[in-house]
Amino acid sequence: MGVCFQALISAFLHVLLLVSLEQARAGQFHNVSNLKGRKQVSGGCNLFQGQWVFDASYPLYDSSSCPFIDPEFDCQKYGRPDKQYLKYAWKPDTCDLPRFDGMEFLRRWGGKKIMFVGDSLSLNMWESLSCMIHASVPNTKTSIMRKDPLSSATFQEFGVTLHLYRAPYLVDIVREDVGRVLTLDSIQGGKAWNGMDMLIFNTWHWWTHTGRSQPWDYIREGTNLYQDMDRLTAFYKGLTTWANWVDLNVDPTKTKVFFQGISPTHYLGAEWNRPKKNCDGEVEPISGSTYPAGAPPATAVVNQVLSKIKKPVYLLDITKLSQLRKDAHPSSYSGEHPGMDCSHWCLPGLPDTWNQLLYAADLVM
Known about the structure:
Elements: H1 2-25, E1 41-42, E2 45-46, E3 50-54, E4 88-92, H2 102-108, E5 113-118, H3 120-136, E6 142-145, E7 150-155, E8 160-166, E9 172-176, E10 179-183, E11 198-201, E12 218-221, E13 224-226, H4 231-249, E14 256-259, H5 297-308, E15 314-315, H6 319-323, H7 350-364
Parallel strand pairs: 5-8, 5-11, 10-12, 11-14, 14-15
Antiparallel strand pairs: 1-2, 3-4, 6-7, 7-8, 9-10, 12-13
Helix pairs in contact: 1-5, 2-3, 3-7, 4-5
Keywords: Membrane, Signal, Signal-anchor, Transmembrane, Transmembrane helix
Protein name: Trichome birefringence-like N-terminal domain-containing protein
Membrane topology: Single-pass membrane protein
């Protein structure tokens, strides 16, 4: 009787998950107002609702003077002819976004350890923050360590270290007899995240990879091994494992936790009513505050998982403001990314705004 009851409960929960994911695909959960104070409202201001405005004081640094930028993000060095994309600032509708103060950031986080965890969008944001700080204290001594999975940039005078831990899925990929297995309920990599004073997590892009670019052969959940799985379902399960890790391992009195949010791509011009287009040749943002295609389904999964997490996690809800920046990708001006890159972002550029939002959120958390 007990076994049957458990089976019924399991089946019921599975149906609920499938219904939620279908609603996500239909775009019915774009509002994140139910995140119980863990999201974008800071000091009474929604930092993530607004529009892009021209600002002649931008960019915040020069790529040629920053030692942290990889070729794949250095669009000016690799021939991008236009510079207008460097001159846009994010303007929230109901308040002003504080301008980033690198010296204040270093003083506030002196002797502390900050870690970005995720994929190459975390790399994008990590290099951006390193450049923004460096521009404020260009003569301070720094050290850089680049390895896989852990890299770091240290501002030695202040004892501030920015770590980057590469974990595209957050959950583990394990080598088994059958091959490489994406393990949805294992997060052994999290041992490297303990002891940080700030954690900024990101994941999504690799969940969509198929074919040669897919770094796993099977998916495991418990004792069940699958050749494949609906990717939104897998994302939900993997992100739930991460949420459980946060609840079990994070002490909010010692560690601030942020989730970077879903970074959009611009390969399909139909999303902004320009069929047969991609990001190539785009030189200005979409005007206003509405993206015609609406939010990607993955944002609903993030919102759903964060709404259930017990520990405080601040959502850097960057998706819509980034969707408006179809002009901010490397496109064909990437030193190391073959083909058209409408996924990553030029530096200087959009990730600098992500870090300004992180800076603003940190001030009020």
